[in-house]
Design goal:
Protein name: Permease component of ABC-type sugar transporter
CATH class: Mainly Alpha
Number of domains: 1
Distance between the termini: 38 Å
Family: Belongs to the binding-protein-dependent transport system permease family.
Subcellular location: Cell membrane
Shape: flat
Radius of gyration: 25 Å
InterPro entries: ABC_transporter_permease, MetI-like, MetI-like_sf
Order of helices and strands: HHEEHHHHHHHHHHHH
CATH topology: MetI-like fold
Keywords: Cell membrane, Membrane, Sugar transport, Transmembrane, Transmembrane helix, Transport
Number of helices: 14
CATH architecture: Orthogonal Bundle
Structural class: mainly alpha
Length: 308
């Protein structure tokens, strides 16, 4: 009886809080929120609803659309390129994310202190991020070129290889080569996110740990990592989403070849929709990709917000 009374009382309190919140809403508050809400509806919610609607139809560029129900989704089960592209995308994500995060973490530790020249190093590490992905891909495509690329030239000069390697023409070399380029380009972005988290940790904690005899690695384990968990979660989510949505670098550097071996899921959606003009099937793949991304993001946030 007492528990029921407490439950009813808590419900009344929640209702009162909601009523007070509604009463305190002013027209000025709505005016500030409304532009963002309208933009969100136009550029996110409407396209999302439209894509879901298209995924249940045969949607030609010209002509009448035909309702197919779940046929587009069933077709995914028997599409070998879809599964190959999905597997390759996850392989690429696993190859890029760990080294990018580890390097970014130690770079953030390195440039955290306000020492002379630190700002210059921060700018140098972040510089590749501001260069467009297409421009970076073209530059690195020249570096990897088997005929006149500087990478093969210096590897042969130092006697590491005897003959030129066709970096972009083989599945075994194209994925590591592109992954290296992405780690070089995007590590600075992850570094800035982690640096913001590190600067929020009080120096008094490190000073107390030093007085207790803690070494560098113990400070990292017992102070830095636990305090940095929300920031780590954000950095991982952004990194994984960026890797899953990889497109430009593979279009420029390999065009998905050889034999679709470097075709990512986004590249396959693009080819299906805008080269084969199967817009309904492409929409179905987009919905599946969105669900996968949502699950991955939820798992990462859940993991990084859990207590050690």
């Amino acid at each position: 009886m007492q528990l029921k009374g407490k439950s009813k009382l808590s419900r009344v309190k929640d209702e009162n809080k909601l009523l007070n919140f509604i009463k305190n809403i002013k027209i000025s508050h709505i005016a500030f929120i409304l532009p963002a809400l309208i933009l969100n509806l136009i550029f996110f919610m409407y396209p999302l609803i439209r894509v879901v609607f298209m995924s249940f139809h045969k949607w030609p560029v010209l002509g009448r659309k035909i309702f197919l129900g779940l046929q587009n989704y069933l077709e995914l089960l028997y599409d070998p390129i879809f599964w190959s592209a999905l597997g390759f995308t996850f392989e690429y994500t696993l190859m890029v994310t760990p080294p990018m995060f580890i390097i970014a973490f130690f770079l953030a530790l390195l440039v955290k202190n306000r020492l002379p020249g630190t700002v210059i190093f921060r700018s140098i590490y972040f510089l590749p991020v501001v260069i467009s992905m297409v421009s970076c891909s073209l530059v690195w495509l020249w570096i990897y070129n088997d005929l006149y690329g500087i990478l093969n030239y210096y590897l042969m000069q130092f006697g590491i290889i005897e003959n030129s390697i066709i970096w972009m023409g083989q599945p075994d070399t194209s994925l590591p080569a592109i992954s290296f380029m992405i780690v070089w380009k995007m590590t600075g972005f992850t570094m800035v996110i982690l640096l913001a988290g590190l600067q929020g940790i009080s120096d008094k904690l490190y000073e107390a740990a030093r007085m207790d005899g803690a070494n560098f690695w113990q400070k990292i384990r017992y102070i830095t990592l636990p305090m940095l968990k929300p920031t780590i979660g954000l950095a991982l989510v952004i990194s994984v989403i960026g890797s899953v949505l990889a497109f430009s670098q593979f279009v420029v550097m390999t065009k998905g070849g050889p034999a679709n071996s470097t075709t990512t899921i986004v590249y396959w959606i693009y080819k299906t929709s805008f080269k084969f003009f199967k817009l309904g099937y492409g929409a179905a793949m987009t919905v599946v990709l969105l669900m996968i991304q949502s699950c991955l993001s939820w798992l990462q946030i859940k993991f990084t917000s859990a207590e050690y």
